[in-house]
Amino acid sequence: MFAKTISTTAFQKTINRQFIRTMVNAKAIVYSNYGIPSEEIKVHKYTIDSPTADGVVLKTLAHPINPSDINQIEGVYPSRPQLAEILGSEIPIAVAGNEALSKVVEVGPDVKDLKVGDWVIPSFPNYGTWRSHCSGKESDYIKIGSPEGNLTKNAAACLSVNTCTAYEMLTTITKLEPGDWFVQNGGTSSVGRFAVQIAKILGYNSISVVRDRPNIEEVKQELQALGATHVITEEQCGSRQFLKTIKQWIGNGQVKLALNCVGGESSSNLARKLSPDGFFVTYGGMSKRPVTFPTSLFIFKNLTAKGYWITKNNFKDLDQKKHVVKTVLEYFRDQKLVAATAEETEIDWEALGDAEVLKFYQDSLQRSKSRKQLIVSKD
């Protein structure tokens, strides 16, 4: 009886230790109303229990602050999470953020492909990534490997939006062959930078259009070092005289694709560079002006104009997303891709109080207006 009692007590201590180990005190940045992000966000505390049989518990390693994240809080982005009574909240809330890199810290007994220490990203948008920890089913995440090799937290955390957007537009809109050309505005944007790098890997030529600025030669050299074949200003793109120079560059080649993220007059000038039967793709509108497209180009060049939105594609075809993620991951690991620059700021979720965490994110939102922000959790 005594031996049995000792055994039972030891078993109970083991259970208690496991329970304590798997109870995670977590924090998230949430909102319950749409509006100005810095005014609407708040800190929500919750606990995460042991994972379900096919579930995992994750620690967030890093996440960016993207324009789409801000637009979701404002209530103006077409795709956004539903406000719901989640994470023990008594009022409907949503967790901010779409992209993140997380590390597996615990797995359920039926989990097959993930193990503790693996790096993962969310399978779908609207996941809610501005938080210290999260939990879900194994199928909710895409494994991107372990923290070894040349993959940085910055590259991994920002993988599924800008990098994949550039790759998909270059490979799924029309058939480009090595030696073909594409032209794009927004050449200094994250997508623009990835586009010229991926094009170089695939053997495509590029013309990147950028706004004129005092250090324009420095910008041109930077983009050409990434892989841009030529870099021109918006003024040069709209110049009939400079068009002769562009034609000399292209020679007998074909400009089959134009990538537009600006709109307005910039989009018209971009479209004029396309060869007959070319494709004009709009994936953004930074100028907030309508896309203008000369009628004659539709008629006499038989151009095709369409939009591109990676969020919709990700919801529609998860297998395609996994394929693209795997492909660009290899580019990063082989050091063929350079991650977009970002201001990295570390947060200590455990050490900071709620008011300090809130102030941290309000300040980060303010800084994101002038420079891309990457929030990195303290190890």
UniProtKB/TrEMBL annotation:
Biological processes, Gene Ontology terms: fatty acid biosynthetic process
Ranges in a coiled coil: none
Keywords: Fatty acid biosynthesis, Fatty acid metabolism, Lipid biosynthesis, Lipid metabolism, Mitochondrion, NADP, Oxidoreductase, Transit peptide
Any one GO cellular component localisation term in the record: mitochondrion
Domain Enoyl reductase (ER): 35-375
Gene3D superfamilies hit by this protein: Medium-chain alcohol dehydrogenases, catalytic domain, NAD(P)-binding Rossmann-like Domain
Catalytic activity: a 2,3-saturated acyl-[ACP] + NADP(+) = a (2E)-enoyl-[ACP] + NADPH + H(+)
UniProt keyword annotation of Membrane present: no
Compartments it resides in: Mitochondrion
InterPro entries: ADH-like_C, ADH-like_N, ER, GroES-like_sf, Mito_Enoyl-ACP_Reductase, NAD(P)-bd_dom_sf
Pfam families (alphabetical): ADH_N, ADH_zinc_N
A GO MF term: enoyl-[acyl-carrier-protein] reductase (NADPH) activity
Record EC number: 1.3.1.104
Family statement drawn from the similarity comment of this UniProt entry: Belongs to the zinc-containing alcohol dehydrogenase family. Quinone oxidoreductase subfamily.
Protein name per the record: enoyl-[acyl-carrier-protein] reductase
Origin species: Saccharomycopsis crataegensis
